[in-house]
Amino acid sequence: MIGWAGFLLLPWYGVEDFYTFKWLLDGWPMDSDYAPAIMLIAQGQKLWLAPMLLALAAPLLVMRRRKTDAIYGKVLIVAGGFGFAWLVAQGLGIGLRGYAYGWMIALFGDLGDRQFGMGYGGLLVASSFLFVFTQGIAARGAVNGDVFVTAAIGGVVAVVTIFVFFPITKMLGAAFISDDGGYSIMEFFGKFVDRRIWGLGCFSGTNCGAAWNSLFLAILVGLLTTTLGLIFALVLTRSGFKYKQSLRALTVLPIITPPFVIGLALILLFGLSGTVTQWVAGVFDVQPTRWLYGMPGILIAQTLAFTPIAFLVMIGVVEGVSPSMEEAAQTLRANRWQTFRTVSLPLMRPGLANAFLLGFIESMADFGNPLVLGGNFDVLSTEIFFAIVGAQYDQSRAAILAMVLLGFTLGAFYLQRFWLGKKSYTTVTGKGDSGVHPPMPKRIALPVYAIAGTWGLFTIMVYCYIIYGSFVQLWGVDDTLTFKHYMTAFAVTWGDGGMRWTGSAWDSFFTTIMIATIAAPFTAVMGLITAYLLTRQNFAGKRSFEFGTMLSFAIPGTVIGVAYILAFNVPPIEITGTGIILVVSFVFRNMPVGVRAGIASMSQLDKSLDESSLTLGANSWQTFRLIILPLLRPAILAALVYSFVRAMTAISAVIFLVSARYDMATSYIIGRVENNDYGLAIAYSTALIFVMLFAVGMLQLAVGRTKIGRRSSNSGGH
Amino acid sequence: MVKINAKAASVSFRGVTKIYGRDVVAVDDIDLEVAAGTLVTLLGPSGCGKTTTLRMIAGLEMPSQGQIFIGDKDVSTLPATDRDVSMVFQSYALFPHMTVMENVSYGLKFSGFDKSETKDRAVAGLGLVGLTGYGDRLPSELSGGQQQRVAVARALVLEPQVLLFDEPLSNLDAKLRRQVREEIREIQQNLGLTVVYVTHDQEEALAVSDEIVVMRNAGIAQKGTPRELYEAPASAFVADFIGEANLIPCEILSVSEGMAEIGIGSFRHQLVSRGLAPGKARVAVRPSRVRIGAAGQGMPAKIAKATYVGSRMEYTVEAEFGQLFAVLDDVASPLEPGAEVMISFAESGPVLVPE
């Protein structure tokens, strides 16, 4: 009851103390730019904030009433709902230039006033309204009257709406805005059917539209990565291959590799002055060509970059096929090949579909490789980028392109669901499943080894060249070894004020680390709470809730980037150009991974653990904190490190959101590449790889230790 | 020394229905009274709604309709956290990252006890189940039976108004099962606890219960003391579920003064009529109540199978109404398959059940 009172008092004080736009700066609390809401109202300004006082006061009146009292719930719902709705309405309705819509001016007359983005005060008030609302719903008996669960659902729904659905809607709206600022469907169709998007010229010798290019490329990459991923997974689980651990290391690669590094390495190898090109030219006396630039280069780079991701998916699936199924098939007189074809492969179907989908979406969203290797081969992601930052600056064109991109990925998402249908592919029953996977049938073993071997060598070579390339003066021209690039990027000098970070890369490096560090815990928390709600709780609309949270996974980063700058450079949420927008974009880009990880490990936990905690008198928050979190420690660590590392390597959304003050490592490197400063770019990338390798290594160490800790305490006690 | 007491309260269901999703009826309009201080078993085949009923008492599920009372209090919409009920799970659900002591103290932490009292109570609880000195171990270091007892202690120390058991013995081997169920019964009687116990094992139910509620198809088939259920099953289902029974179709020829004359073919037998009117009915006969003789009164039949199981002989007998399962204690001179015999029923035991 005390906590409840405090909960209610907090927003009240929040209004008195925090509703500032940049509080504690000069002029506070009287100056209208910095004053809290209550002062604004007292001074007769910004009167549209006044109704919120009512909504804040109402819950105080019913505070003393019993929880089960019907009025209690009703008042909270009404007060919270009204307050929140009013806040949103005024935020959207009254913008930088007064009323945002013409009809409002017509209705209320000219406002003669304006407002900026919401500050922390607004944030606090908004969240308190939200929680008052969810408290009310809980009191009405939703979700067994569980306050923590309803609040968590409310919270997740609200932030996902604000940071995923709102920007996407905004972007879709922008697609209809014509050059002169009005809305026009004709204009939309005019741009939509542009030849540069849908042209089919490649069949008649010229270039195809970006949409076809992207689609074609993505399908190819999806197929290739899935096949290769399956091959590696088979080698790992169903062969006598001795160095399995080193194969596992392959799974780490995509996580720690900045996305365009592969493209750079390919240039070093196959570019006009690349090693292989020069060698072939020398031996066979062929004129070096620029064949790499365009479709072939992007295809190779993306396949190299995303195969490990497919491998990561496939390995779980291939291992997940219960050996007893395969053994059963064998005892039913199927030979190895028949077993593989009729039992193992069909059971891997969801994995194949997932791997393909991942490859498809990653390829669609990939920005770094096409930028580096694209040549005349236009793809959607780069087109979007040039539409926004290029000379043409055409927001609606960017929005249309993003729509097409989004359409493709969502289409793939639905196709996957459709293909998998409602069949159950679960083979892990939780019962002890002894037995071993049969080795691969001979018929496929040989080609599998051959392909895996070749590809593995190729991958190793590519990474060696990245490191080697970072020490070379000027690739293909001046092959002397040098530390020059590292000096330029990471120089440290001793001056008057002690050590000074004079290297050109330090700024973006520190920003990246900072942003990634801030984003990681948020991502992990959001992911785990969402996973908890999805696995452990039942509530109305759970399916759409799940869809909503997974949606940002199917949305390519480029689309998110465009949507964010369109949505958040005007009030009520004005965060373009700040570090916050970067953090927010990382949190929602990486959240689905946290959700998946959380779901996977949470479904390993017997539900009766939670239930027994509940019947022992703990509430659901205490249960979450005392039972679930401690048991999920490895998953939490993994989510933390993963989101940290992803934030460091992300490029597709970031490239739109960086500002002079908050430049990220990846966008800095892209900048270097655009200036043909490959040496520095590669040196910086190499440094990043090692930093991330370090982070992942620390994770392995930490997770490994918790496991060992449990095992030793099992055998010997504390 | 702190003593664990009971604050036993009654449980009552009034017209409780539970519907999952749109139309899956798990529990259908149940009325149920569990008196304070008694052990009541919910018994039935899987999918009959017994576990759902138990979870509704715990507050892990909310009834779709109807009311649930614990003591005098309507708890229908109260979540598990706020109910004074604790539960022992089938899987025990011991928290693997906590020691035995931490597990047992877990619930006490949320019940407003101070530190020293929490400890005293946890120690007392462990003592009650015979695990004094095991407090520092982790659950994984205990045997199945010990884990089970920790789970019981963890629930007991809260002195709940109602203690719930969800198939607590199903993960134990047969020998341990008998021992643990006796311990549970002993603790329940010594402390005067109200216990609701779910099982699908009829022998277990007969052994521990004050009262058994047999459930079937989301409803209650019959409730009564173990003896009532065994000796006077209300339906063919109950007769068959509680101890095996041969269900033989018969004809009630006449009823007078509470006794019925039945006919199975040409065979005649006298039975308590149990309110049945003349017409078609069935007679439920326990295998041990079948008499087999070489000659004399009865129905002619033939031995189809004979199985030696050590302490007794089991026979499958082929008669004109169908097959009959019989158990005879005479292992010294077994009957051979194919032997022609006459079968009849013991004086007491066989009961009439409605068709």
TrEMBL record, chain A:
InterPro entries linked to this entry: MetI-like, MetI-like_sf
Main localization of the protein described in the UniProt heading: membrane
Annotated TM spans: 47-63, 75-96, 116-135, 147-168, 215-237, 249-271, 291-318, 339-361, 398-415, 446-468, 509-535, 547-567, 635-658, 678-703
Subcellular location: Cell membrane
CDD domains found in the cross-reference section: TM_PBP2
Keywords assigned: Cell membrane, Membrane, Transmembrane, Transmembrane helix, Transport
A Gene Ontology cellular-component term: plasma membrane
Annotated GO biological process: transmembrane transport
Membrane topology recorded in Swiss-Prot or TrEMBL: Multi-pass membrane protein
Entry keyword annotation includes Zinc: no
Domain ABC transmembrane type-1 residue range list: 211-416, 509-699
Annotated family: Belongs to the binding-protein-dependent transport system permease family.
Protein name, per record: Iron(III) transport system permease protein
Native source species: Pseudorhodobacter antarcticus
TrEMBL record, chain B:
InterPro entries in the cross-refs: AAA+_ATPase, ABC_SmlMolc_Importer, ABC_transporter-like_ATP-bd, ABC_transporter-like_CS, Mo/tungstate-bd_C_term_dom, P-loop_NTPase, Transp-assoc_OB_typ2
Domain of life: Bacteria
Ranges of residues in domain ABC transporter: 11-242
SMART domains linked: AAA
Molecular function terms from GO: ABC-type transporter activity; ATP binding; ATP hydrolysis activity
Keyword Transferase: no
Keywords: ATP-binding, Nucleotide-binding, Transport
Pfam entry (one): TOBE_2
Keyword presence, Glycoprotein: no
GO CC annotation: ATP-binding cassette (ABC) transporter complex
Family: Belongs to the ABC transporter superfamily.
Protein name: Iron(III) transport system ATP-binding protein
Species of origin: Pseudorhodobacter antarcticus
